[in-house]
Amino acid sequence: MPELPENTAVSIHPAKKLQQVLGYAEPIFNASMAGAAGGALAAAVSAAGGFGMLGIGGNTTKEWIDGEAAIAASSGRPWGAGLMAWVLDKNLDPLEQVLEHGPSFVCISFGEPGPAAALVHESGALTGMQVGNAAELSRALEDDIDVVICRGNEGGGHGRNEVSTLPLLQLALEKTNKPVIAAGGLATSAGVAAVLGAGASAAWIGTRFAAATESMSHRNIKDAIGAAGIDDTIYTRAFDIAQRIDWPVEYGGRALRNDFSDNWAEDLEALGATVDASDALTDSINEARAKADPSLAPVYAGQSAGLSAAGQSAAEIVADLARFRSVLQQAAQRWEFA
After folding, report:
1. Would 305 disulfide with which of 36, 197, 228, 251, CB 3.0-4.6 Å?
2. Which domain holds residue 232?
3. What is its EC number (predicted)?
4. Is 134 in the same domain as 254?
5. Would you call 126 exposed, middle or buried from its count of C-beta atoms within 10 A (0-12, 13-18, 19+)?
């Protein structure tokens, strides 16, 4: 079982511990985004020196998991997977299936990770948990979680909307010696430098990788992300209500604003009544998703959409983010005094 090395007489920083155990060269993880982070993206990120993550959605089949996990492992480099705790509460099969492919790291988030975390540990992999507030952070400090991922409300996709990345990261670093990964609003080498300089072990990047060439997202979705600004997102449950998806109510989603959110995000009660009365709205959203129509379908993206471009490969993105070293060096020189 991979274990974080014990402290010796010379203290080893948690960031170095995690790097030693998981074997990445660059402290860059692609977020485990269901629908975007497939095997090709995970493999490309790992091959480029980062740590590739596979996103396991709520309706994935055994065949899909087997196929995508095999691709994720094809780089020959360590890789990981992310799953939703509230889905695993009903059925642990998706987790058992992905564990058969030997991931080094598994992130169990959005709910109580208990039995799932125990299963990951039995497999020999490290267990991570995304946290979005102080209560979730306290849960992640228990012994069954090895790595804490602080996801601020700037991040895209589902999560909490309570605390931004830097305050949450600072709190986590005060509370634990476990490796802490920062997530939410990160898309450039300067952003990576900021969280690593603060003490994070790595940066968890979602939106920029969602627009990468290896992402499973449709070209229309990638182009919409590339065209968005930093103030073009909205946090809402409207898309889940319209699609009748049973995400726990505390986990809304940050997505690009579009015609649908403009019409419904401010009146969820009326939206719920409309969905209850007819299938028409749900059918229209599902059709828009099938056609990748960003005017109606959810395009889950964080505020860093305004810092992301479509058409870049995962390797190009990792190489660009890896320039964090020069950013940190320049910052250190800027504040040196004779």
Report:
1. 228
2. 226-303
3. 1.13.12.16
4. no
5. buried
Q: Per the structure block, which two tokens stand in for 182? A: 């920062």
How many domains, the chain? 2
pLDDT at 23: 94
Cite the beta strand spans of the chain per DSSP E: 28-30, 52-55, 79-84, 105-109, 126-131, 147-151, 157-159, 180-183, 202-205, 233-236, 252-256
pLDDT band at 7 (very low <50, low <70, confident <90, very high): very low
Whether 205 is covered by a domain: the verdict is yes
- CB 176, CB 47: distance < 8 Å: no
- % of the chain beyond a pLDDT of 90: 93
Residue 154: strand, helix, or coil: coil
Amino acid at 326: S
Q: Is the pLDDT of residue 43 over 60?
A: yes
Instruction: List Cβ neighbours of 263 (8 Å cut-off, separation of 6 or more).
Output: none
Give the separation between CA 172 and CA 3, rounded to whole angstroms.
21
E strands, 8-94, are: 28-30, 52-55, 79-84
| Same domain for 299 and 162 | no
Q: How confident is the model at residue 337 (pLDDT cuts 50, 70, 90)?
A: low
Tell me which residue of 150, 144, 145 sits closest to 174, measured CA to CA.
150
Encoded tokens for 196: 């690593």
Q: Are residues 79 and 156 in the same domain?
A: yes
Contact criterion met (CB below 8 Å) for 76 and 70: no
176 plus 295 within the same structural domain: no
Contact call for residues 108 and 115 (beta carbons, < 8 A) = no
Note whether residue 9 is domain-resident.
no
Domain match, 103 and 152 both: yes
Mean pLDDT of 17-22: 94
Q: Which two tokens stand for residue 243?
A: 């699609």
